[in-house]
Structures are given as structure tokens and as C-alpha cells.
Design a protein that fits this description.
Elements lengths: L3 H31 L16 H17 L3 H31 L7 H31 L15 H17 L3 H30 L5 H31 L8 H12 L8 H33 L6
Helix pairs in contact: 1-2, 1-3, 1-9, 3-4, 4-5, 4-6, 6-7, 7-8, 7-9
Length: about 300
């Protein structure tokens, strides 16, 4: 395992590679979550009907630039989120296991989930302003608008406009929902990945390598999406609102279900799954490789006790 700093860098690099491939589905997911916002059934538009239909509609009307809106913010957010999540998880887990079980190498599901959630929450809080601007950039469409529309020239302009209108607090609008969402996802992502990996080695005799990483990542990605999507929908709406349409997480949840029905919190699930599966596979598989690379670099430039 690389040092905490090395794991942070490796996690960030891996996540940036993954987000480049999956960003189009993220754009579709956000627009599906926002279409028909607080409108009763029968009066909701259906501009985007699924992951591939949505990608086709956006590319046809807005080009590749439209489907990749907010990619710069996505890179910064992923570096902060996954750098923290992959960088802090193992040191936290090892420390707690040593403290509680007197054996840092021993695996415990409760400790693993707590450390996964905690490391993810740290990353979500650090990257929240970038996710806020990313959401608003991705939701904007001059052709088929959904939700509140924000006209930002780019990420820097978005940050400046929000700060000018709402101050520093405005940049952290919806951070509570972001922390809940990421806590849910992070609490199961790494524990599920390592659990699946151990089971595949033990019961199917799989060896360390790309096929094992791919299979473990697939299991992890599906579980993450099931846990994370409802708070993800709430977060998207809190981030994209203008003014105080929602007072907080539970107000948004209540209004959404009351007006649109229970399954409204699962709007955009298929594009989310289409994004999260390859994103998790690529992030965790690339993290394995980048960790090895960072480890080799560290061995050359750091003394052994540091490792």
C-alpha cells in the first residue's frame, strides 16, 4: 500500500480517468432527476427517457460540448472525493482495527463501513462547491431546459456568480445532502469491493489481476448505485435550486414524494447505473494500477521507514 499522500494521488488519477469515460451519463442522470420537478404525474415532460436516448438527444441538439458540460469541475471534484476516499480509507481502517481489535490487519465489516463513509464524507465536503457548479452547468440546456437554468460561461464564472450573489455560504448550498449521499455510497463501495474480492478468490479461485478487479468492481458499483441514488436525486435538486425552493434535505424529500410520488427519488436510476458501473470499475481497477505505480515511485524517493 502506498502512503496516505500516495494513495490520495493514485485515487485522484484513477477517478479522473474514469470520469472522462462516464461523464455523458452523469449529464443525462442530472437532467432526468430535474425534469418534471415538483410537477404532478401527467404534466411532467419526458425529454430524456433513458441513458442512451438522453445522450443521443443532447449530442444531437448541443453537440459533444453539451454532453461534456462541467467536465473541468468533475475532474477537480473527483480528485478531492476519491483522493480522500481511497487515500484515507486504509489508514483509518488500520488505525481503528488496531485500536478496537488489536490487529490492524483484521477485517471487520462495521469498521470498514464506518471508515468508508467517513473518508467519503470528508471528500464530499471538500469538493461540494465544484459539484454544485458542475450540476448547474450540466443541467443548463438552450434547447430542452429542465429545472432551474443557470447561465454560467464556465466553472470560474459560476463560482464567481454564486459567491457574488450568496457569499461563501452559497458555495456550500446542499453540502448536507452531498455528505449523506457520499456517506451512503462510500460506506458500501470499498467494503463491498474488498468483500467481493476476497469471496471471488476464496470460492472461485480467481487470482490477483484485471479479471478479479473487474468482477469485484462490478459488484461494488451495483450496490453503490442502489444505496446512493435517492440522496443523489435530493442533492441534485438542492444544488440546482434558485432561492429557497427547498429548506433542506428532508423538506426536498417530502415535497418530491408528495408531488411526484415515491419513485420520483429514483428518477435517472438507469443513467446513474450506466455511469456508476463503469466509473466504479474504472476507478477501482485503475486505482490498483496507479497505487502500484505510486508505490514504485515512493520506493525510489522515500526512505523505507516512511513506507
Amino acid at each position: 500500500m502506498a502512503t496516505t499522500a500516495g494513495a490520495f494521488i493514485a485515487g485522484g488519477i484513477a477517478a479522473c480517468g474514469a470520469v472522462t469515460a462516464t461523464h455523458p451519463f452523469e449529464t443525462v442522470k442530472i437532467r432526468m432527476q430535474l425534469q418534471g420537478e415538483l410537477q404532478t404525474k401527467g404534466h411532467q415532460p419526458h425529454h430524456y427517457r433513458g441513458p442512451f436516448h438522453g445522450v443521443g438527444v443532447i449530442v444531437r441538439n448541443e453537440g459533444l460540448r453539451g454532453i461534456y458540460r462541467g467536465i473541468g469541475c468533475a475532474y477537480v471534484y473527483q480528485i478531492l472525493l476519491n483522493g480522500c476516499r481511497l487515500g484515507f480509507y486504509e489508514p483509518m481502517r488500520h488505525g481503528l482495527a488496531t485500536l478496537a481489535l488489536r490487529d490492524g490487519g483484521k477485517q471487520n465489516l462495521a469498521i470498514n463501513m464506518f471508515c468508508g463513509a467517513s473518508s467519503g464524507i470528508i471528500g464530499a465536503a471538500a469538493g461540494s462547491p465544484f459539484f454544485l457548479v458542475k450540476t448547474r452547468l450540466q443541467s443548463f440546456s438552450p434547447f430542452l431546459p429542465v429545472g432551474t437554468q443557470h447561465r454560467y460561461r464556465n466553472a470560474v464564472d459560476g463560482m464567481a456568480q454564486i459567491y457574488k450573489a450568496e457569499g461563501f455560504r452559497g458555495l456550500y448550498r446542499g453540502v448536507g445532502a452531498a455528505m449523506i449521499r457520499t456517506g451512503f455510497g462510500s460506506s458500501v463501495q470499498l467494503p463491498t469491493y474488498f468483500f467481493a474480492k476476497r469471496r471471488l478468490v476464496r470460492h472461485l479461485g480467481m487470482q490477483e489481476g484485471a479479471p478479479l478487479h473487474l468482477a469485484s468492481s462490478t459488484v461494488s458499483g451495483f450496490v453503490v448505485c442502489c444505496f446512493m441514488h435517492p440522496p443523489d436525486t435530493i442533492m441534485s435538486r438542492l444544488y440546482n435550486q434558485n432561492g429557497n425552493l427547498y429548506k433542506g434535505v428532508f423538506d426536498c424529500l417530502g415535497k418530491t414524494i408528495k408531488t411526484e410520488g415515491f419513485f420520483a427519488i429514483y428518477k435517472g436510476f438507469l443513467p446513474h447505473l450506466a455511469r456508476i458501473l463503469p466509473h466504479t470499475i474504472l476507478t477501482l481497477s485503475l486505482a490498483e494500477q496507479t497505487n502500484k505505480l505510486i508505490r514504485k515511485v515512493e520506493q525510489k524517493i522515500l526512505p523505507d521507514p516512511t513506507l
